[in-house]
Structures are given as C-alpha cells and as structure tokens.
Amino acid sequence: MAVQPLITVPVPERPDLIAFDGSEVRILAHSPRGTMAHFTLQPGQVSKAIAHRTIDEIWFVVSGAGEMWRSDGVTEEVTELRPGVSLTLMPGMGFQFRCTGPEPLRTVGVAMPPWPGDGEAEYVEGRW
Questions:
Q1: DSSP E strands: which ranges in 1-128?
Q2: Is the pTM of this model over 0.70?
Q3: Domains of the chain in sequence order
C-alpha cells in the first residue's frame, strides 16, 4: 500500500477564488476521495442558484446565520442555517443560500468525489 502524504491546511486569510454561485472559497485539505473548502457569504448577500452535475456535497455551518433552499424537482425545502447545522447536496439538486445575519455566513463543504473543476456547476432557477 502506498503511503499517502500528511496534508494540513489552515483556513487561508484571503479567498482562493469566487465560486460559480458567488461565494468566497478558501481551499482546504483534500484526498483522492474528496475535497474540502470553506465558503463565506457576506451579510445581505444571496448566492446564485446552482446544481452540481456529478458530485455529492456535505456542508457544515461554522458561523453566521442564513437560509439554504434545496429542490430535487419533487421536494423543495428552506433550511435555517446556524452554527452546528449540516446538510447534503446531491447531484442535480438545485440549491441557493443567503446570509441573513449581521456577520458573514461561514460553512465548510466536502465534495465527493473531489471537485472536478469548471463545468461541474450549472445555473438553475432559484428561490431568491
């Protein structure tokens, strides 16, 4: 069995990029089976509604307050986002989130398999 490198990544001070949905992205640790990122949405900001083509994501709210709209085409739900809440985003599921509090909304997301790059996300009609 090949030895895997030990990877340690602190949250970068500045965003590495702006996501397709408009949120700030800070790239965290990764493995052959998944990637992790820290997302920030500023107070009053609303993301663009998107769906992923192939990946599953699990999100965990670190700080701030907000709402997440999710729709699989049959079931639609708005979930309150507050520290300690986790949720899933499956391939083809439309989602959109917004920061409703006075502080930035900060989440950590894990993509499985690893984020494949440009073309993974597509715009969908959202709630906000």
A1: 17-18, 24-31, 34-41, 50-52, 56-63, 66-71, 76-81, 86-89, 94-99, 105-112, 121-123
A2: yes
A3: 17-123 (2.60.120.10)
